[in-house]
Amino acid sequence: MCFRIEKIAPIPPQTATIARSAFPKGSIVMSIRDELGILYQDEQLRALFPSKQGQPAWSAWRLALITVMQYIEDLTDAQAAQAVRGRIDWKYALSLPLADPGIDSSVLSEFRGRLVKAKAEELLLVRLLERCQERGWLSGGGVQRSDSTHVLAAIRVMHRLEVVGETLRAALNSLAVAVPQWLQEKVPVEWFSCYGSRVEDYHMPKASDERQQLGETIGRDGYRLLAAVYDHDAPDWLVNLPAVEVLRQVWVQQFHIDADQQVHFRQPNNSPPSAQLIHSPYDVEARFSRKRETQWVGYKVHLSETCGENAPHLITHVETTVATTTDVQVTDRIHQGLKQRQLLPLTHIVDTGYVSIEQMLNTQDTAGIELLAPVLPDSSWQAQAGIGFDVANFTIDWD
Questions:
Q1: Percentage of the chain lying above the pLDDT 90 cut
Q2: Roughly how many angstroms between the first and final C-alpha of the chain, as a whole number?
Q3: What does the alpha-carbon distance between residue 82 and residue 158 come to, in Å, rounded to a whole number?
Q4: Could you list the residue range(s) of the whole structural domain that residue 64 is in?
Q5: How many helices (H) and strands (E) does the chain have?
Q6: Angle formed by the axes of helices 242-254 and 208-230, to 10°?
Q7: Of 191, 268, 330, 343, which residue has the fewest beta carbons closer than 10 angstroms?
């Protein structure tokens, strides 16, 4: 698609009249248009459409606003596209005539892909915050709070045996597309049936020794494929295929070769730490983590919001990290992001995991922020056992 700048037209009179009749008190998407006006301009989104060739793109500002409204109402792409075609309040917010045919749902996912590719995923939030600042609803100072929650990766959670089998299958599928003739010459015919279907634990043996044997069989097959790919007679570029590189990394993590050149499936206690361990060939950055009673494979998102008494509560900063990143590693990054937008609070309320003694002592001096967090519980054996003298039994005589 190529980019075109489209002049933002006012709301068509017929659309406005019918929308006001249907929603005399308005709706949330109508309020966005009435209270915030035109949030996004095509010019702000030019970087998302670098090509000057192809079919003209649908209005970029409309796609950005649809993305926001879709998130507010928790709609799928198909539901959002249907809302553009059939809902009067959406046509009102988008300055569309009633007869506008709308868009295909695939355009929405493509637009989000462009946001990510251009590293402009924060653009929509930043522009919204700027408008809130212009309206006087948001400013620096005051009180903000931050907390984290888990984000599930869009993958199937798999056992280690499934991971290695599916990783080998993904590499074979990638090579089958890239070099089908070469692959047929290098691998046994039975591999196409053995690794042709999705690897699932349901079809695997249950006994631990049999599972170990199956894992080592998969390991030998994977090493055989890697040897073929890295052979000097193979096309040089095969090693750069993402699925092949993932295969190499997973095999380093899950297998080892002894002095007799025998392949062994590593035991769980001999595997890399969670921060390094790949759990799926389809999302190599997703990590396993646990927070209290919750465990997941994916990521972690840190949300900061204002919490003043006489102002709307607004999200001011979003920080996404791998699941194994500790909260305390993110505190300074949150402050840096808020500082760039001139939104640093005077008081920052956080959970215990976000603070260290050093931060509690230095943040006030370096950033002018008072960090408020619960005190870590006393983990000494005296406190746990309820005998002896724990921290609570001591006071400091400052004189």
A1: 61
A2: 73
A3: 35
A4: 13-137
A5: 15, 8
A6: 140
A7: 268
